Amino acid sequence: KHEVGTCYRCHSTIEPMVSKQWFVKMEPLAKPAIESVEKGEIKFVPERFTKNYLNWMKGTRDWCISRQLWWGHQIPAWYCDDCGHVTVSRTDACECEACHSKNIHRDPDVLDTWFSSALWPFSTLGWPDKDSEDLKFWYPTSVMVTGYDIIFFWVARMIFSGLEQMKDIPFPTVFIHGLVRDDKGRKMSKSLGNGIDPLEMADTYGADALRFNLITGNSPGNDMRFYVEKCGAMRNFANKLWNASRFVMMNLTIDKNELPETLELEDKWVLSKLNTLSKEVCENLDKYEIGIAAAKIYDFIWDTYCDWYIELTKPRLNSGDEARARSAQQVLLYVLTDILKLLHPFMPFITEEIWQALPHDGEALMIARYPEYTESLAFPA
What we know:
Blueprint: E1 23-24, H1 27-38, E2 43-45, H2 49-58, E3 63-64, E4 66-67, E5 77-80, E6 86-88, E7 104-106, E8 110-111, H3 113-118, H4 120-123, H5 133-138, E9 143-147, H6 151-165, E10 173-177, E11 180-181, H7 198-205, H8 207-215, E12 224-225, H9 228-250, H10 265-286, H11 290-317, H12 322-343, H13 348-357
Parallel strand pairs: 2-10, 9-10, 11-12
Antiparallel strand pairs: 1-3, 4-8, 5-6, 5-7
Helix pairs in contact: 1-2, 1-6, 7-8, 8-9, 9-11, 10-11, 10-12, 11-12, 12-13
C-alpha cells in the first residue's frame, strides 16, 4: 500500500513529472531572519509561536519559487533559441545578452504567490525607490496581524525579504490570531460548504454585530467557533446602546459635554467605574487582549450604565429640581460619550452615528482622543 497523490481541486490522480524550476538559496536569507527573532528585534504574540517560527527557519530548504499558473508575476528570464543562454534582467530583454540574437522567448512560469506577498511591506511603498517618502515614513511598520497557519508561508518570508532588500526588519511585533471555525469546530472550506458569507451576516445583523461577535470570546493565537446565534445577541447589544442613547437625547437640554461642579453619590460611582474601565481597557489593548477589553466594555454598557445608572438618574430627571436634573444630564452625556469612544474601534458604525447626534467637539469620533485614566475621577470609597 502507498499514498497516491491527488489534485486538491478535481481529485484526479497526480503523476510525478520532473521539470526545471527556479529556486532561491535559503541559507544566507534564513540566518539574519533567525537572529532578528532570537535577539528580540521581532517578538511574537503569543510568545509560544516564536518556537514555531524558529523550527521552520532552522530546518528550511532551498525555496522553489516558480509556478506553472495562469496568473502572477512572470519570471524575468529570457531563453535564447540560438545559443541557449539565459538572460535575467530588471527590464524586458529585447535580445540575448551573450550573442545579441533577437530570437529569444520568455520563461512562461510565474513566481510563487508567497514570493510576491513577501515583498508587500516595502513594494507597496515605492520600493525600489529608496528615497520614497512613504517608504521612509512607513517602513518598518509597527504590528503585523496574521493567522498561525501562515507564519512560515508569509511572516517568515516578509522578514527575510525585508532584511535582504531593506536591510531592516519589516515590523517589531507579530500578533497571531487563531482560525474562525464553524459551530462544530471544523475549518471553514469550500469543499465542506460550511463557510459563512460575511456580507450576508452584515446584511442580516449589521457589520458592527458581526465584528463584535468575532472580537468577544476570542484570545490571541486560539481558534474560535462561529455561532450565528451570537450575531443575534450582539445585534441586541447594539439595540441596547441605541435605546440608551435615545433616552439620553430625549432628556438633554444641555449643548456642551462637561461634568457638573457637584457630583452626587451615584455620579461618583459610575464615573469611578468608567475611569477604572478606561485604564483596564488600555492595559488590555497594550497586551493585545482584545477579547477581554471588548467584554469589559460590553459589561459596563449593559450592566453599569443601562441597567443601573440610567435607572438611578430617572428620579432626578423627573424631580422638577433644575440643578439636579441638569447635573444628571451632564454625567449621562459625559459617560455615554466616553463609552462611545471606548467602543468605537470594535463597533465603529453605530458609535460614530450616535456621537455625531450628541453635543460634541471635533469633526469625527474616529479621530477623537481615546479615554485614559484620570486621577480626579477616582472615587474608590
